Amino acid sequence: MEPKFKGQHEKPALLPIIINKEEEYEVKEVRKHRKCGKEMQYLVHWKGYGDEHDQWIVEKGLPHTKEVIEDYWARYLSRN
Fold it and tell me: What's the structural domain count of the chain?
């Protein structure tokens, strides 16, 4: 079925998982990084969501994504 509106997903987005009684969404991949003051931020792409939902998140706000961040740096360093 064709989406009727821009940004509408064909399949419903995935629900968050619960970790320590808090909702968390799964990061599919990190796409970019940037320094903001003393903190590192990552542009994250959420599993089950479109590109329009990508967000810049401070590294300490991504406590369960160590492996995804490591994968990003491996890709980034291999390109440069």
Answer: 1
